[in-house]
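Predict the assembly for these two chains.
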Amino acid sequence: DVKVTQSSRYLVKRTGEKVFLECVQDMDHENMFWYRQDPGLGLRLIYFSYDVKMKEKGDIPEGYSVSREKKERFSLILESASTNQTSMYLCASSTQGASGRYGEQFFGPGTRLTVL
Amino acid sequence: QKEVEQNSGPLSVPEGAIASLNCTYSDRGSQSFFWYRQYSGKSPELIMSIYSNGDKEDGRFTAQLNKASQYVSLLIRDSQPSDSATYLCAVNIAGGYNKLIFGAGTRLAVHP
């Protein structure tokens, strides 16, 4: 079974703090993704990575950065947390395959981040 | 803008009935389609994948795909209260690192 783990289930931080969210997958997947999910807004892609040290912006990258130093690990960084970054953060991974074919994503359990 | 549309619901069905969830997508080049189930407070769980026109059955779940109409659906037979969740439709957009576009989800409520 594919396993995607995230470093914390719940996290409470103060405005202005630097926040690290970590994601690890054990299936040797090339692609990894960070989403946030908010009521009424659905899943929104923040960043994704298709290889070590490679990253691409998603739909809402502002205020976030990412790091992928090893294939199995993808980190999301909030440089200076703000209250509007309070959300559920979900990491996912998938194989690369041929573009547009297959590509099912497997999600971690999520991190519910509250910024006070 | 590539889009995936779902009726937000809630879709309310009695226990034992068939629940029918629908999804339309805008990218005609899409080749892979997925259904995820998400319980409240939990992360999405993949329940069905479909790549070819027609039906694909897995237990009580049947996914249906019609690429000409750009339409994908999920049928849940013999619905159970434990099926109550939000169901997300996701489409693999052509030409982009296997990114998925997710619909906003349909909330299903199965009542005893």
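The mean pLDDT of chain B is 94. The first strand of chain B starts at residue 4 and ends at 6.
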